[in-house]
Amino acid sequence: MEEKKHILTAEGLKRYEDELYYLKNERYKEITQAIKEARAQGDLSENAEYQAAKEAQRQADARIEELENLLSNVEVVDESEDSSVVRIGSTVRIKDLEYDEEMEYQIVGSSEADTDKNMISNESPLGAALIGAAEGETVSVQAPVGEIRYQVLEIGKKGRE
Q1: How far is the C-alpha of 148 from the C-alpha of 99, rounded, in Å?
Q2: Residues facing 76 on adjacent strands
Q3: Average pLDDT of span 62-87
Q4: How far lies 73's CA from each of 32, 48, 131, in Å?
Q5: Cα(104)–Cα(43) distance, rounded to whole angstroms?
Q6: Residue 51: which of 66, 31, 71 has the closest Cα?
Q7: Residue 95's closest CA among 43, 39, 53, 152?
Q8: Residue 100, by phi and psi: left (phi above 0), alpha (psi -120 to 50) or beta?
Q9: How far is CA 1 from CA 22, 50, 69, 70, 76, in A?
Q10: Distance between CA atoms of 22 and 28, rounded to whole angstroms?
């Protein structure tokens, strides 16, 4: 079975590559130094600094492995194309037709999704409904409370006003 590709924007790819570089080159040196200093204190069985440094090392190792796996099977979306429909990389302003509320989201791959930053996955119910929609079009999303309808007000690229 073929492994699922991780879809990223160019910005997301750079962010993950930068994090991996930091972990391997800077964070690991900090952790190694902390372990060295803790060992110098003597008895490791009751040394809280040593235990904390080893835990930090385990967490860094796990994140490095996670990032390497993600980056080994990545597909970067071409954001240079101007598109009249919503696609991954698009920033879209929508209106909830029931509550007359406007929202703005960037559509990204699931690896980059971060609702705190208004970045929603193309695989989420709303993201999936918006993919392929044009300005002025209405999309419906099935939610536990029932069907929610949104109108696409504007499609743009991230950073474009």
Answers
A1: 10
A2: 8
A3: 85
A4: 30, 38, 22
A5: 55
A6: 31
A7: 152
A8: left
A9: 33, 42, 16, 17, 22
A10: 8
pLDDT digits 0-9 by tens, 77-88: 876 666 788 999
Residue 38: both structure tokens together: 């803790």
Instruction: Give the span between the Cα atoms of 90 and 156, in whole angstroms.
Output: 6
Per-residue pLDDT of 132-158, as tens digits, reads 999 999 999 998 889 999 999 999 865
Joined together, the tokens standing for residue 12 give 């997301």
Residue 117, classed as helix, strand or coil, is helix
Tokens representing 65 are: 């492995």
* Residue 89: CB atoms within 10 Å: 25
Q: State the pLDDT confidence band at 65, using cuts at 50, 70 and 90.
A: very high
pTM of the model: 0.73
pLDDT greater than 70 at residue 2: no
CA atoms within 13 A on the CB side of 143: 12
DSSP bridge partners of 138: 151
Cα–Cα distance for residue pair 126/16, rounded to 1 Å: 25
In the numeric block, which tokens belong to residue 128?
């999936």
